Amino acid sequence: MAGGVGSRFWPYSRNDRPKQFLDFMGTGRSLLQMTFDRFAKIMPPENIFIVSNKAYKSLILEQIPMINAKQVLLEPARRNTAPCIAYAAARIHAINKDAVMVVAPSDHLITKETEFLDAVSGGLEFVSGNNRMLTLGITPNRPETGYGYIQAGKDFGGGFKKVKTFTEKPNLEMAKVFLESGEFFWNAGVFMWSVKTIRAAFKKLLPEISAVFEEGAPLMGSDSEQTYIDRYFPSCQNISIDYGIMEKADEVYVLCGDYGWSDLGTWGSLYDISPKDESANATLKGQALLYESENNIVVLPKGKIAVLQGLKDYIVVETENALLVCRKKDEQQIRKFVNDVSNLENNSDFI
Amino acid sequence: MAGGVGSRFWPYSRNDRPKQFLDFMGTGRSLLQMTFDRFAKIMPPENIFIVSNKAYKSLILEQIPMINAKQVLLEPARRNTAPCIAYAAARIHAINKDAVMVVAPSDHLITKETEFLDAVSGGLEFVSGNNRMLTLGITPNRPETGYGYIQAGKDFGGGFKKVKTFTEKPNLEMAKVFLESGEFFWNAGVFMWSVKTIRAAFKKLLPEISAVFEEGAPLMGSDSEQTYIDRYFPSCQNISIDYGIMEKADEVYVLCGDYGWSDLGTWGSLYDISPKDESANATLKGQALLYESENNIVVLPKGKIAVLQGLKDYIVVETENALLVCRKKDEQQIRKFVNDVSNLENNSDFI
Q1: Distance from the Cα of residue B54 to its chain's centroid
Q2: Distance linking the first and last C-alpha atoms of chain B
Q3: β-pair type (A72-75, A50-53)
Q4: pLDDT digit string (tens) for A65-77?
Q5: Is the pTM higher than 0.95?
Q6: What is the dihedral sign for C-alpha A56, A62, A65, A68?
Q7: For labelling, which of A96, A165, B45, B52 has a CA lying 20 to 30 Å from the CA of B14?
Q8: Is the ipTM of this complex over 0.90?
Q9: For chain A, which residues lie within 8 Å of any Cβ of chain B, measuring from their own Cβ?
Q10: What residues of chain B lie within 8 A of the CB of A267, using their CB?
Q11: Minimal Cα distance from B325: which residue of A?
Q12: How far apart are CA A288 and CA A307, in angstroms?
């Protein structure tokens, strides 16, 4: 899934180059490329499909030149994860109706790749030839209020547990209770099931979305697929797979572990996992001289130098034509700032 | 005088484009151009000479295309104001030994131009045909510790007073006493005298510098002038006109007034005179959205947007390849920062 347009990382992420397309870690590979590389270790590249917005087609083919254009599924409108997954399941079903599939965001970080891939391989086996649905749960290490949690119930053996509930983002008090209980895990947005199982779940729980892809099934993989999708995809309900399917389905399991996972959802989460200097400043890109400054995260364009003095707990991000300086604790306001910028005259260069 | 290379305004000022060449006020004219325009109102442009470093010759001719290259006196080395003024006096003397001259920095701001030009015109008359030396004194409006002061003595009539002493930068306590006394004025670095008078003063008080220009006198204005200057100017003592001449000379007068003068010596002084928004933020150039921010001074390149949140009393300056964020009260550290930047590898682009 590579359709996000997140504005939380403005000005580093832009409309024409959202987070998944950026080399966030300075490794030379974007998050999308890292995600592709990861899955290509356990499956043939031709079995990897990328679902994204039409606007990003050329960017995707540029970043992942080893795939065929047909492996890029293009949404004409943003409709959250449920329609995205229904579309992918329909296409895979047209190729192999007995296939199992793993669904994953393209803009998360996984540092323990072996553990992650072992979990995916084992998970795909676990859901093969049955009607189980599986999610990956991340063992929490702090009372995080920014994630949804999965409550695990009865142990099924092999690390698999029955899911008791999916919960929304908790407040801090609740998050602390979750952490202590040992029963709650972060929802990483990684799902596994057979295409038969997920299509049956859509038919039962999101019948209108299901109908779009049942009707379109004969066109999947044909030259008419895009025309059909362009016409009918926008009519799909805007709903997440978690809310539309997972919370209501039976036979939902979770495989929990520590995969060095981060959703990189905030500058704060990026700061947390980044290498820091002796004053706990993380300079991700560019060259910065810091004086009387601590706990900052700094991202600069190549070839730029920054001299920062007297800053504590700030985000300093610069791009070719925009600069953001914002307290780390106030980063939720960035969406508002971006909105304000978009309301300026001649804003198109900035967003 | 346009030879400064001040690093206090880094990264806005650079080695290859110091403060006097910058459009500091966003008026479309650099400080040098504004200074030239100002004096051109009371004297023919061909009577204006610009003394600067050889490195800035083309920049000067580009900014002041209406002058002849011969009006630009080029120093091969930086030797403070005394040798600079001795050189200018020698050149003017070669053209007209009865001339009077006014010496002025090219990187100061004068907002009350009529008052200033009246003072200069009256001052030139005051020093004509006699051996008086005149400085402009600025009536202080605050106990500034960043300037030298002139103590005025006996009133001579017409606003002219005999100078009692030149003083170094005072501490705050002393500056308050100066302010209350009504006897002390800021030294604006603007001087008037006849070329005969200043050359006589050099002969008496700085004989070694005087000798260089007495010997070179026959070459002034000739094709050999630059060769002579290149060879002998660097041997001149590095000393200011204030310390070398004014503090020791007799017949020194001061003409005091309020000319809307600022030496623009610090970001703080620039902030003080700049228009501000309702939160007292001064955005001199570029476009900035400020949130929960006050008392900042912001300078951005054209076409750049900045979103600043949670900043109070900061300097935020960006140029094509450098960014500075620094507390206003700590701006004296900028020289050190620039020195650190210059010690980096591949620093030449940044300084």
Answers
A1: 18
A2: 22
A3: parallel
A4: 999 999 999 999 9
A5: no
A6: positive
A7: B45
A8: no
A9: 11, 287, 289, 291-292, 300, 303-311, 314, 316, 318, 321-327, 330, 333-334, 337, 340-341, 344, 349-350
A10: none
A11: A308
A12: 6
